[in-house]
Amino acid sequence: MTTYLRSRDPNVFGRPGDGPLKVLAEVIQRRRDGAYHTITVAAPDIAERAKPGQFVNVAVEGPGTILRRPFSIHRVSSQGPIAGTIDFVLDAHGPGTAWLAERQTHDIVDVVGPLGSAFPIPQQNVPCLLVGGGYGVAPLFFLSEVLTRAGLRVDMIVGAANAERIYNAIEAKRMTASVTFTTEDGSLGVEGLVTDAMDDVIAATGTRVIYGCGPMPMLRAVSLRAKERGIPCQIAVEEHMACGVGVCWTCVIPIRSAKTGQLRMKRACIDGPVFSGTRVGWDVSRWHVPDGDAVEDVAEPGTPIEEGADE
Length: 311
Ligand SMILES: Cc1cc2nc3c(=O)[nH]c(=O)nc-3n(C[C@H](O)[C@H](O)[C@H](O)COP(=O)(O)OP(=O)(O)OC[C@H]3O[C@@H](n4cnc5c(N)ncnc54)[C@H](O)[C@@H]3O)c2cc1C
Ligand code: FES
Hints:
Blueprint: E1 21-33, E2 36-42, H1 44-49, E3 55-58, E4 69-72, E5 75-77, E6 85-90, H2 95-101, E7 108-115, E8 128-133, H3 138-149, E9 154-160, H4 169-174, E10 178-183, E11 190-191, H5 194-205, E12 209-213, H6 216-228, E13 233-236, E14 252-256, E15 263-267, E16 274-276
Bound molecules: flavin-adenine dinucleotide (FAD) and FE2/S2 (inorganic) cluster (FES).
């Protein structure tokens, strides 16, 4: 049986009144989750518009921090005592993320969002497998909530280098039918990579759609495994971004056209970050250089997108 996904959103700027906003948002809450920081900011209009897979672009301060920094929308809250908030997860490793990790409750941060495309949602009631690596699991919590609310079964594989870098294991267990952890050092769950657990989970759950977010080599491996099994796979890429709004062409990745099979350079910030994993040109991309050799046939950044819809 073919699994149909609801088609992705058009260009994020295509619908006035539903596009991204720039807001000065108050930090409502901050907490430490293992190796990560989770920040909750009050941004009711962004929370209302946000869909799983989309991201926010946050202004940071300090030396070398002219550009905003993109972060996946981890969760939104539109109801309850702290309503109109968005959460994002930080892996503090450079000046921008370190500055954000130091923000205190009631500090103000300058946020643009929601940006980018959202994960398409299955039109049928089929089991979904969500595969996350490191902080890449962040948008999958939001996705899990939306899929579960729609009555779909959600299973998760969460991988990281070690147990400390598994994001919020307790919450991942709470919100899914099953969660399998993998760590490269074996300190939690299956020793190895997320792909080492995929076959067993797919067999046990009857997975019909796979979603992934994490480092590019992980997304490549997950996409190829999904393709081998004929399972539709949607991934959110976390490519470097300079402007985040489609202007600079920093974030391009090669995507194979569904119609013609030809590779076209697409901007991860505005055409993505969600793409069909099986349509990414993994073998001609700059993140996969076989045997350390230079890849000759990478399309130049700046190659214009052909006219017409890609779907
Ligand atoms: C869609 C998306 C979602 C993300 N979600 C998360 C998340 O949920 N949590 C998280 O921790 N991280 C996430 N990231 C990664 C996060 O944006 C980076 O970790 C962050 O920008 C690092 O900033 P830094 O100053 O701390 O570190 P640094 O690595 O020192 O700073 C990176 C700086 O270099 C610039 N830069 C680097 N390479 C390039 C390039 N090729 N072109 C242009 N500028 C470049 C960056 O813009 C930035 O100014 C996401 C990235 C994307 C694209
Ligand atoms: S980051 Fe500038 S076009 Fe995508």
